[in-house]
Design brief:
mainly beta; disordered N terminus; 45% strand; 2 helices; globular; 11% helix; single chain; 167 residues
Length: 167
């Protein structure tokens, strides 16, 4: 067990704990490790459309010289969701490549979780959830970002990047 830190007014947290951002996606709460999040931007950020892209690729945004494909995860997985002003684009670093995902709202900017804590029932959550953790009397599914996209999805994103000349 690693070194233990005590934060004033907070619970004891071990040095092995990790920070997550808690997001809403289709009415459920999910956690993404903060070290995998490059940036969070507004969902109304103007996007460059790519006519040859599948419908679930909303377009690309250029941030600091990087062409970042923006994925509408709701469309990709046929999840019913209405766009609203609270939606955000979560830009993740997946295998040294930036990809943005339209999500619901950011519910909690930072929370600490322990690596050894996991609740049963992960099989009831979407395939991209590695484990379930308790957080403020709720269950939060921790996202494995490497499993968010299938091989076919990655190939479509590759085609878009190639079309844009940003490989």
């Amino acid at each position: 067990m690693g070194k233990v830190f005590q934060f004033p007014g907070k619970r004891t947290v071990s040095a092995n704990s990790r920070q997550i951002i808690v997001i809403e996606l289709a009415g459920k709460k999910f956690g993404v490790y903060t070290d995998q999040v490059a940036e969070i931007i507004s969902a109304d950020t103007p996007l460059k459309k790519i006519q040859t892209a599948p419908q679930w690729i909303e377009g690309v945004v250029v941030i600091r010289g990087h062409y970042i494909p923006i994925i509408n995860y709701f469309l990709l997985h046929n999840i019913q969701s209405e766009p609203n002003e609270r939606n955000k684009i979560l830009i993740l670093n997946i295998n040294n490549s930036y990809i943005g995902f339209i999500i619901g709202d950011i519910l909690s900017e930072i929370a600490m979780i322990e690596p050894e804590v996991s609740l049963p029932g992960v099989e009831k959550w979407p395939f991209f959830v590695d484990r379930i953790v308790p957080l403020k009397n709720q269950q939060v599914g921790i996202i494995n970002i490497d499993s968010l996209l299938s091989q076919a999805d990655n190939e479509e994103i590759f085609k878009c990047r190639k079309f844009l000349g940003c490989l």
